[in-house]
Structures are given as C-alpha cells and as structure tokens.
Amino acid sequence: MIRACTSDDFTDIAAIINDAAVAYRGVIPDDCYHDPYMPEAELADEIARGVQFSGYEVEGILTGVMGIESVQDVILIRHAYVRTAQRGGGVGGKLLKHLFEQTDTPMLIGTWAAAEWAVQFYEARGFLRVSQREKGILLRKYWTVPDRQVQTSVVLACERWRSR
C-alpha cells in the first residue's frame, strides 16, 4: 500500500535511506559518501524545506520511500530508496508511478552518475538524461547542492519537461 508518510515515520524514513544508500559505498566518489549517508538532522532539514515523502508499506512495515519537492515550476523526485532486502520487487516503480500520476507538473530527478542502476531505473520509466550543459543549469536552479555533486551527478527529465 502507498501512503503519505507522517512525522511518526521519521525514524523509518531515515533507516530506509541509510540502509539503501550503502549501495553507493565504493561507487560514488569517496568524498561524497559518508556514514550515515543522511544524518537525521539533514533529513529533518529536508522535510522542513518541503520534501514530502510517500511510503510503500507491506504488512504494516515501511519498505520504501520517495520524496517530492515542489520548486518553482517543477516537481523534484527526492530521496527515493527501498530497503535492501526488498530491492528489485517493484516498490520503487510503484512509488514513482504513484507520484507521477498525482500531478501534471514536469518532474526532474537528480542522481549520482556512477549509480548506473538508479539511472537505468529512471530511464526504464521514460525519464531521459538532459545534456551536460543543461544539467549544470538545472542543478543550480532547482537544487541546493555543492559543486562537487553537480560535477558527479546527472539530471533526468520526464516527457512533460521535454515537451514544454
């Protein structure tokens, strides 16, 4: 079942993100990976800034989360993670489809370029990478990320973005 996450889910959201982000260890640049990947204070800041999480629940247990953030004229997909034990079971695809169907607003996704599985996940669902030049412009316009992350990331856009 997909549902909106509440403040009661905060600890589970943090646990899911940090469990799933272990996949980045040794893949993304070492200076970009830290443990925990997202400290609770950082997660709290993200939520306070407006990231709204939806969760996929199985038998009362949250197994995946995906956030959205409305920024200017787009929706950003933020912090999409599935517990390692449930990965590959369709949870992420169901969450993305659910969030995509909730709005007509163009969606953008930023992720690590080296996380090929993540890039392929979004591409398999109709998102396409923007050019390197456009990536830098978009990351600076819609996200607040350090230059190092701009250098090592990709941005993918949905058809709504590309056809506007």
Q: In this structure, how is the largest beta sheet organized?
A: 7 strands, mixed
Topology as a string of helices (H) and strands (E):
EHHEEEHEHEHHEH
| Count of spatially separate domains | 1
Low-pLDDT parts are none
Top-tier CATH class: Alpha Beta
Q: Give the end-to-end Cα distance, rounded to a whole number of Å.
A: 33 Å
CATH architectural arrangement: 3-Layer(aba) Sandwich
**Count of strand segments:** 7
User: What's the alpha carbon Rg, rounded to whole Å?
Assistant: 15 Å
Q: Counting H and I runs of at least 4 residues, what is the number of helices?
A: 7
Strand order in space, largest sheet:
1-2-3-4-5-7-6
As a percent range, the share of strand residues is 25-35%
User: Mean pLDDT, as a whole number?
Assistant: 96
Shape: globular
SSE class: alpha+beta
**CATH topology grouping:** Aminopeptidase
Estimate the helix proportion, in percent. Answer: 25-40%
| The CATH fourth-level homologous superfamily | Gcn5-related N-acetyltransferase (GNAT)
Question: What do you see in this structure?
Answer:
With 164 residues, the protein is α+β, with helices and mostly antiparallel strands. It has one domain: Gcn5-related N-acetyltransferase (GNAT) (Aminopeptidase). Helix content is 37%, strand content 26%. The protein is built from seven helices and seven strands. It has helices at 10-20, 40-49, 91-101, 116-123, 132-142, 147-151, 159-162, and strands at 2-4, 52-58, 61-71, 74-82, 107-112, 128-129, 153-157. It has a seven-stranded mixed β-sheet, with helices on both faces. Strand 4, helix 3 and strand 5 form a beta-alpha-beta unit. The radius of gyration is 15 Å and the shape is globular. The model has no long low-confidence stretch (mean pLDDT 96).
